[in-house]
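Q: I have 426 residues here and want to know how they pack in 3D. Can you give me a structure?
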Amino acid sequence: MKRFIISLLLSALILTASPFTAHADLWDDIIGAASDAWDWTSGAATDAWDWTTGAASDAWDWTTGAATDAWNWTAGAAGDAWSWTSKAATDAWNATADFFAPPSNIGNPNIPAEPELPNGVQRCYVGYGSKRIESNKGYSGGVKITKDDPHYGWELGKFYISGFTRVLPVDDTTLMFLKTVGDDVELHFHLTQDIDMLNSNTLLTVANDDGGYDEDFGVQPTYLGRGALIVRHYDYEHNPGKTQIYTDYLSAKASGSADTVISLNEEGDYEVALDYRVLEKTRVLGTAATSSSFYNYRIYFRFSVRNGNCMAFPFDVKTGEELRNSSVTPNGFYLDFAYSRYLDIDVSYSVIVEGENGFTEDVRFNRPAQNGTDYAREGIYTLTVSNRYTGEKTVKLIYVGSDERIAGYMRQGYTTAQLLDALNGK
């Protein structure tokens, strides 16, 4: 068909192209070339059509795949967004519900157990409850806690002293503890509250005080922490020692493991204060929102520690040996009051005089003894020791001299009256 069409076209051209003529071979060649051109063009067109239709198919597949992926991603992202929005809305609703209906502020307190004392060790509670402190005056003084106070109706804890032999009242508010050899007098605090929820109230806690001060003890503004224990000791001359401050005392006590016991083995008078601050949070219109208020409180008390013995301690001025009752020394002696500062010690000095009526006693002086004074004159010394707190009395005789007769009787434990009878032959 194509050769026929080409022949017609060429015949027409030849008929109209006179006077040109062509040979039959040339005509065949032209027809053949035209046929090949037709075949190539037709094949190229077919190939182009096949490629175009293939590319279009591939593009369609890619486009539909991309559209499917985009749809799946959009659907997933929308699902995630809905889940997040739903959860956020639920959380917001719960938070709003909690805000307007907050949980109860009644907690379950955790209070460490107070260690037991060894068998036979006595204890006595001291301190008479907390007092409210005006914040602009530091921790000093104090007023009674009233019913409108957040501290009303409950106590933080109790102080007690252990390891003494006897306790005596000094006045309505002060006690005296007598100790003897082997006693270990100590101050303890028995914590009866959870400092993170006072009176089982989670809105009432012991607060940190980083700038508190105490005028009574001369404590300058300093870090006190969650409760500060302050102890000051006065010696036998009523000279105050260095104030001891134990900061963050209530936190240490609440830990249940820290050493919070204070040793009190030194004679003297003591004053103690526990200064602490309380934070009260108050619900605003019944919601979870709170307002905060701070209050200062103090437990303060005094007590005394004394030796319960009734002993004097004379020592030889040369050998340093302790002299006991009926001792004899040619050197003299002195008294050491280190262990008897609060005892009344009197010394009577007499000499034995021989006269017409035999041997008699001549008392030369009778007066309070002095710490560190040497007693070296020859004669008989009578030391009378009185404990004003127990009513006990102890008497010691010491002979200073070298008279063998007197020394012999003294070593046998003779009293002065018995010595005179022996010297006079009675």
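Q: Anything worth noting?
A: The two ends are 185 Å apart (CA to CA). Confidence is low (pLDDT under 50) at residues 14-22.
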